[in-house]
Amino acid sequence: MIDKLLKVALFGGEPILYLLIFLSLISVAVIIERFLVFRRNRVDVPRLASDIVQKLNQGDLDGARNAVAGQKSAETRVLCEGLDNFDQGAVVAAELMASMRTRQQQRLNRRLIVLGTVGSNAPFVGLLGTVLGIIKAFNDLAFAAKAGPSVVMAGISEALVATAIGLLVAIPAVVFFNYFKHRQQVVMENIAQLESMLLDVIRTKRENASGSPLSSAA
Fold first, then answer.
1. Fewer CB within 10 Å, N- or C-terminus of the chain?
2. At what angle do helices 112-143 and 2-9 cross, to 10 degrees?
3. What is the pLDDT of residues 135-188, one digit of tens each?
4. Its pTM surpasses 0.70
């Protein structure tokens, strides 16, 4: 059994290097794709909220809907869901916006697991390549003892390349994973603010339409 494993190990760390290059290409592709998604998701939330509140206070529901229509950001999609169900009341609007918020969070979270997996495992993959390279170096020394330690040192130096490549692959993946997670958190916080704002307006409109308890008693 050990002999069979040794034969596999004697391939060295070169196959691991190809695997790391493949992982790096996947990581770069995900980074570019997610960067474009978050770039398209930019929206001026304070200005949007102010514009929506102003139009709703003026009774211009269609104008509020037009303000968010056609926009692709997660914030405006959730807000649009609430505006489309404005007349259904705060409870219905809140449930539908919560459902849309979940879908948008899933959209922003898509493929981030790839960056997390590459970032956490690439160093170990590189370390595996280093270990295999060291095994091969000592095996070469066993069959070329007259060559001296230079054979081992050359083999070890080549083996350590796998660890370095593993770190080079992992560091950008971790950095961008944390960056995209932060951007996602900001978007979710923006959505929560817009939801709260819209629900407050809906409740206020409902109360004004039905009349306050005091005015009803009068």
1. N
2. 110
3. 777 777 666 656 566 666 767 777 788 889 999 999 999 999 999 999 999 999
4. yes
CA distance 112 to 200: 34
The greatest distance separating any two alpha carbons of the chain, rounded to the nearest whole angstrom, comes to 109
Closest CA to 44 of 21, 76, 16: 76
Return d(Cα 185, Cα 163) in angstroms, integer: 33
Burial status of residue 140 (CB atoms within 10 A of its CB: 0-12, 13-18, 19 or more): middle
What are the Cα distances from residue 16, in Å, to 19, 44, 70, 132, 176?
A: 5, 46, 47, 9, 23
Among residues 215, 193, 190, 212, which one has the least CA distance to residue 203?
212
The string of DSSP codes covering 18-79 is HHHHHHHHHHHHHHHHHHHHHHHT---HHHHHHHHHHHHHTT-HHHHHHHHTT--SHHHHHH
Neighbours of 163 (CB within 10 A): 21
Q: How many CB atoms are closer than 10 A to CB 13?
A: 30
Residue 8: band (very low, low, confident or very high) from pLDDT cuts 50, 70, 90: low
CA angle, residues 145, 151, 152, in degrees to nearest 5: 100
Alpha helices in 69-111 (DSSP H): 74-84, 90-109
Question: What's the rounded Cα separation, in Å, for the pair 153 and 176?
Answer: 36
CA angle 195, 197, 202 (to 5 degrees): 90
3-state secondary structure 182-214: HHHHHHHHHHHHHHHHHHHHHHHHHHHHHCCHH
